Amino acid sequence: MALNTKDFINSLIEENYTHLCVVPCSFAKDVINEAINNPKIEYLPSASEAVACSIAAGLKMAGAKPIVIVQSSGVTNMGSCITSLLKPYGVTFPILTSWRTYKAPDSEIQHKHLATELPTLIHAYGYESLILDNKNLTNTIEQIELCNNTNTIAIIKKDSFTKVELDDEHKLDLSNYVPRSKFLLSLDEKFKNDNTLFIGTTGNTAREMYSFMPNTNNFYMAGNMGGALSLGLGAAKTGKKVIVCGGDAEFVMHMGGLTSAGRYKDEVDLTYILFDNETNKSTGGQNTYQKHIDYIAIAKASGFNVVKKTIISLKDFNKTVDDIKVKKSLNFLHIKCGFDDETPRPPLEVVEVNKFD
User: Fold this and answer.
1) Which of 77, 155, 216, 249 is a good FRET partner for 127, with 20 to 30 A between their CA atoms?
2) Assessment of whether the complete model's pTM goes beyond 0.85
3) Between 204-212 and 180-191, two packed helices, what is the crossing angle to 10 degrees?
4) In angstroms, rounded to a whole number, what is the distance separating the alpha carbons of residues 284 and 165?
5) 270 - beta bridge partners?
6) Which one, of 115, 123, 126, 128, lies nearest residue 84 by Cα?
7) From first to last of its 357 residues, what are the pLDDT tens digits of the chain?
8) Are the beta carbons of 267 and 276 closer than 8 angstroms?
9) Cβ distance 115 to 357 under 8 Å?
């Protein structure tokens, strides 16, 4: 049984909730879709869970009535905000988190620990936890109100909400762009049987690398969203040639990785390829709403050698990669790409590794 999503959002509006501060999760994608469709509540996508939590605190302190929605792995990201801002200042608002499960031999190992320990983590923050009722809407809203007034975090179970499609005006059409698979196939051809280390960020990027780059030396990072570049920097500092394949949503999550890498621009052979499909593809395909961001300018200001224009063609991509392959430097490429069909997750035996070749 699942709650009617439209009724849920309308009930929140009736209770004067104003904003949904969100880092998307597939468990909550229908709630997100309905919030985007409904002009009476504002969907506020956030770069990280800590950002969502801090924005919500500012909204609440200024008289608004926000809700934060994240996935369980992101509850760790908001820990500092909860323990050093919300708790000491007595700021409360509803925090809703998914509870991702894990069963061996699932390769989504980033969920393994919190699959059993999420309530323990919440309690360590000084909060209580409850399971959001997905059968009785009246009780659900009462739970939300409890979370609004006390240090309580609500846990969302899978399939708690009915399906909601985005209205056409909110859907993306990237059919004019080359799908990411074409660029990955090119990398596979250029670097097959090469010692270059490829690091794929969590989500569809790593999944597609597994499907389309079988001949390269790949590390598939299942979790730690936003940390792929910093992981690559560490490897590059040992003398390895590293290429990080990232995405637009993960780019903004921990941008301190960019400024840290820039400090070592004359020491490392590190390339960051940003594949921009404007969405959180692996958590439901929500728009990242980041068209205001000049990725190239940010990377340049951080110290990277940048390709000055966004790459949209395979021809330009191949030429740029050929240049990168033969010289040691800190590089940044912004690639605008389209969607591919869903690809399988890499199996456990290729994900669960802790040493780079």
Assistant:
1) 249
2) yes
3) 50
4) 10
5) 242, 330
6) 126
7) 899 999 999 999 999 999 999 999 889 999 999 999 999 999 999 999 999 999 999 999 999 999 999 999 999 999 999 999 999 999 999 999 999 999 989 999 999 999 999 999 999 999 999 999 999 999 999 999 999 999 999 999 999 999 999 999 999 999 999 999 999 999 999 999 899 999 999 989 999 999 999 999 999 999 999 999 999 999 999 999 999 999 999 999 999 999 999 999 999 999 999 999 998 866 667 889 999 999 999 999 999 999 999 999 999 999 999 999 988 999 999 999 998 888 999 999 999 999 998
8) no
9) no
Please name the residue that has the structure tokens 């399988």. Answer: 344
- Kindly state the tokens that stand for 253: 């999550």
